[in-house]
Specification:
Helix content: 25-40%
Number of strands: 21
CATH topology of the largest domain: Double-stranded beta-helix
Largest sheet: 8 strands, mixed
Structural class: alpha+beta
CATH architecture of the largest domain: 4-Layer Sandwich
Shape: globular
CATH class of the largest domain: Alpha Beta
Radius of gyration: 20 Å
CATH superfamily of the largest domain: Clavaminate synthase-like
Number of helices: 10
Length: about 350
């Protein structure tokens, strides 16, 4: 069990319980921080006969309770509900009522499946995806992420999650000068993109799908809106973003948080085009200290929760409150995702 050192969050009230079909539960992998479960778990009351339509109605009528659980915990797992297909998942996402965020500027190779639903990162199953906040390397990032297990892994393939403020606290305790410099200077992210997608790479999204265009001038306009500079190359483009903040003050919870893709870039942005050590630097261009990066990775691992996927699971994350990653796996595994403003 971990223990958060910031002020306690309020407990969500109302909405679930007997008669609603929605029950707040627990599973062995859960942790608790200041008495608040991480993640929050909501499952189906065995005495309640759910079909998809009744589940959607339950979300709609008890949305404020579900959102309260998410706000308190940072993550919410919905387990045991009749969600089978990508279209079912799309309906669940719509029921929560968050606005959609187009996937512009992200690094992961993804495919649109239906409506607001995309595949999760399609990089090969033997590759781990390091901890990150979704699209933390660009100014426009999602506030919420949904993941859905359409087909559970043969083995492995968990999506470990960890609380942002907890990582900030642990890093500040151990490396106060580094965190102060990070807070002051921010980070610069550099990535080289090919023309088309490279499915062999965890950051293999080509520039045409990154900017949703085949026109270089349109790509430059969209990059500029993201605070990104483009340097065109013979067979692709180098993108430079930043300096961009790596530490944020989260107003709704009143605390400082770790919000960056530093560890992911430094340890994972590697393919035929990219050297991870050059992928991220301090905001003044100076290199990051390797030992501290790998210590941060240990902190992320130690404080994380990894729940094995079950078919039909829906995991809702507050992207400011929580970092996520992916463990390697044996196929089959099909996890779908949806990003919200």
């Amino acid at each position: 069990m971990g223990e958060a050192s910031e002020a306690k969050m309020p407990v969500a009230v109302g909405g679930g319980g007997s008669g609603t079909g929605l029950l707040e539960g627990s599973i062995p992998q859960q942790k608790s921080f200041d008495g608040i479960p991480f993640p929050a778990i909501v499952s189906s009351d065995a005495s309640f006969d759910f079909d998809l339509s009744r589940f959607i109605d339950a979300i709609t009528h008890h949305k404020s309770w579900l959102q309260g659980l998410l706000h308190c915990s940072g993550a919410l797992l919905l387990r045991g509900f009749p969600v089978v297909t990508a279209s079912d998942f799309d309906s669940v996402v719509q029921a929560f009522g968050y606005d959609e965020l187009p996937y512009v500027g992200g690094a992961a190779p993804r495919t649109n499946v239906v409506g607001r639903v995309f595949t999760a990162n399609e990089s090969p199953p033997d590759q781990k995806i390091p901890f990150h906040h979704e699209m933390a390397q660009v100014p426009e990032f999602p506030s919420k992420l949904f993941f859905f297990c359409e087909e559970e892994p043969a083995s492995g393939g968990e999506t470990p999650i960890v609380l942002s403020h907890l990582v900030y606290n642990r890093m500040k305790e151990k490396y106060p000068e580094f965190v102060e410099k990070l807070d002051e200077l921010g980070l610069i992210y550099t990535r080289i993109l090919g023309v088309g997608d490279d499915p062999s790479s965890p950051i293999g999204r080509g520039w045409q799908s990154t900017f949703l265009t085949t026109d270089k001038s349109v790509a430059e306009e969209r990059a500029a809106r993201l605070g990104m500079k483009l340097e065109w190359m013979e067979d692709g483009v180098k993108t430079i973003t930043g300096p961009i903040p790596a530490i944020k003050f989260e107003q709704t919870r009143g605390r400082k948080i770790w919000f960056n893709s530093m560890v992911a870039a430094y340890t994972g942005w590697e393919d035929a085009r990219n050297d991870p050590v050059k992928a991220v630097t301090f905001g003044d261009g100076t290199p990051l200290p390797s030992k501290i990066i790998y210590d941060c990775l240990k902190i992320l691992d130690n404080e994380s929760v990894a729940i094995p996927w079950q078919k039909g699971d829906i995991l809702l994350l507050d992207n400011l409150a929580v970092l996520h990653s992916r463990r390697s796996f044996k196929p089959p595994r099909r996890i779908l995702a949806s990003l919200c403003k």
